[in-house]
Write a structure and sequence with these properties.
The protein is an alpha/beta fold and 409 residues long. It has helices spanning 7-18, 22-25, 45-67, 83-95, 139-148, 166-177, 257-273, 291-309, 317-327, 354-362; strands spanning 3-4, 31-37, 71-77, 99-104, 157-161, 181-185, 199-202, 221-224, 228-229, 235-236, 249-251, 344-345, 348-349. The strands form four sheets. A six-stranded parallel beta sheet has the order 1-11-8-7-5-6, covered by helices on one side. A three-stranded parallel beta sheet has the order 3-2-4, sandwiched between helices. Strands 9-10 form a two-stranded antiparallel ribbon. α3 links the parallel β2 and β3 (71-77). α3 packs across α7 (257-273) and α5 packs across α7 (257-273).
């Protein structure tokens, strides 16, 4: 059973950690300016969806900063905003000493995007000013990497889908600096290559780009950073709902990386303006099976099932084969017993479905909904470290310049 890694739990943790600073911040009158853009009536549906996602994100930021005691100056730029109008808003925020941080919601209209670089880099807490910001990556990218870390202690291969987009570049840079092995995928690449990875991070903002044809039970974590509001009021991410029960852990949409971004921004502004030593929010480690462990647990069950269900063997052969299978032991140290019935594992009779049985072992045989981000085990899962493998070569078709885009931010 797939367990959800809840971003809402992360955000609640951050709010609890930083609520103590509210009394220090509120009397100062310090503010954060958040700028977003409205679509025109005749804009394409895809553009409207991106700006609707931007609206949701901006409103979440307003709540998060106000929780800390900051004033949130939410500036909504109307359709047809000119370069001069946008430049004036940025300049006012740059010159206002009470404005401690500026965030421009992406994507701005194409003709206005270059003006974002006029933002005062010292007030850029979301790394929008191309290397001049105090931060190496945007808050979304940093948050994603911090969610990945507890699942990446044994040198796994991490696939980043949408690696050339704004968020994707930040994820790739951050994970590479931390020494992780990466599989970078973007437009023009065969996304089925993610099957060979251990962790999948998708930051394309293209609804349903990954499905059952891409995800596998050995994926210990799938991070979905997509967020595209639909006309019916629902929200879609990069991962199809049909694939939600395949990986071992998943960040859901909504309620996954969006709140993690808010928690990261809160931490940044508190450390910058109030307490450089403020504590960090964390994702607790939780158990997972490596690809090798999953394969090892499935093999004895398949052997027993094929022996019991197979054609009648010659004299003495069937019982000997079955005794051989029965003598095997799983990586957990539990023997496989019984000659006529199904194999028995550490949590009761096997179902005959090795994937379901492996999931049952992960959850201790319990049933019910996905877990949140509560405290997990203090140590990572046992089992052999994965052998070093080289990243598969990309197919000859080069990726489309500019990347796949990214989730609404």
């Amino acid at each position: 059973m797939t367990e959800h890694v809840s971003g809402r739990d992360v955000l609640k943790q951050a709010k609890d950690l930083y609520a103590r600073y509210r009394d220090d911040v509120a009397p100062t009158g310090q503010r954060v300016t958040i700028v977003r853009f409205q679509p025109a009536e005749n804009d394409p549906p895809e553009w409207k969806a991106k700006l609707e996602a931007s609206k949701v994100s901006a409103e979440q930021k307003v709540k998060s900063f106000e929780h800390l005691g900051f004033e949130a100056n939410h500036v909504v730029m109307p359709p047809g905003t000119t370069r001069a109008q946008f430049a004036a808003v940025l300049e006012q925020a740059n010159q206002d000493p009470a404005t401690r941080a500026i965030i421009v919601q992406f994507p701005p209209p194409a003709h206005l995007q270059p003006l974002v670089q006029r933002m005062d880099p010292a007030k850029d807490i979301d790394a929008l000013t191309k290397g001049r910001s105090p931060y190496a990556a945007c808050a979304t990218a940093e948050g994603i990497c911090r969610v990945v870390e507890p699942f990446a202690k044994d040198d796994p291969v991490i696939a980043v889908v949408g690696s050339k987009g704004f968020v994707g570049q930040g994820v790739v840079t951050t994970l590479r600096e931390r020494g992780h092995r990466l599989m970078e995928l973007d437009a023009g690449d065969d996304l089925r290559r993610v099957r060979d990875a251990d962790i999948v991070v998708s930051v394309t903002g293209n609804p349903g780009i990954l499905g059952p044809d891409h995800l596998r039970p050995h994926h210990r974590l799938v991070v979905d950073s997509g967020f595209v509001p639909q006309a019916d009021g629902t929200v879609k991410g990069d991962v199809q709902r049909a694939a939600y029960d395949i990986p071992q852990h998943l960040t859901p949409v909504p309620g996954g990386i969006g709140p993690v971004e808010m928690a990261t921004l809160m931490e940044r502004v508190v450390r910058r303006e109030v307490d450089p030593n403020a504590p960090s929010w964390k994702v607790e480690p939780r158990p997972y099976l490596t690809k090798d462990q999953l394969t090892a647990q499935q093999a004895p069950e398949v052997a027993v099932a094929s022996t019991v269900a197979g054609p009648k063997a010659g004299p003495g052969q069937g019982s000997a084969s079955l005794r051989t299978a029965a003598g095997q032991r799983s990586p957990t140290g539990q023997g496989i017993t019984g000659q006529q019935g199904p194999a028995t594992g550490p949590h009761g009779p096997a179902s005959g479905n090795p994937v379901a049985d492996a999931a049952k072992r992960r959850t201790g045989g319990a049933s019910g909904g996905a877990a949140g981000l509560g405290p997990g085990p203090a140590t990572p899962p046992t089992g052999p470290t994965r052998p070093h493998i080289s990243t598969p070569p990309k197919p000859p078709t080069p990726p489309t310049p500019g990347g796949m885009g990214g989730p609404g931010r």
